[in-house]
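Table 4 source record.
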Amino acid sequence: MVDGPDVYPSAPTAAVSTAPVPTAVVPLPSVAQPISSSLTVAQTLSLSLAAAALFPVLTALALGSWIYLDAVARESPHPLRWAVEVTFVPPVLLAYVHYRGERSGPQSDRERLALTVLLALLMAMMVGTVFSPPDVFAQPRNTFGGLLVTLPLFYWIVYRDDAEPEESGASESEE
């Protein structure tokens, strides 16, 4: 060991200049402004969140509408009560299906429309959830895209004409 005040000698000090250093100003692109759109990130986020919140609300309204119309067609004593209960507590749908009466006539066009929209919204939410990355912006976009596919699909499924059973057609031709 070395005895003394300076174990590590200090480096020689250089003279510090106080003259201003010339700098060049280079304009950089702003990160806050999107290149292809006039929407800011906050506006895009709020539109995306509003669209994401819109699907469950529309689905609840379609479910309530279909339950109400179905309960009226089945001559339920409390169709509005069933619609409100199923809308706000969806597991009540199981009780409704168990306790509802027999249908007195064929489905009306309003019932079919409500059922078509309900099924299309439910399937579009599943498609949007399964086929989109876990991204706040992508999921509502893909859900709307899924709705463009599922709405015509369920329209075709719900509104297609019921073909007559083959037995009744065969019995008529035999006579």
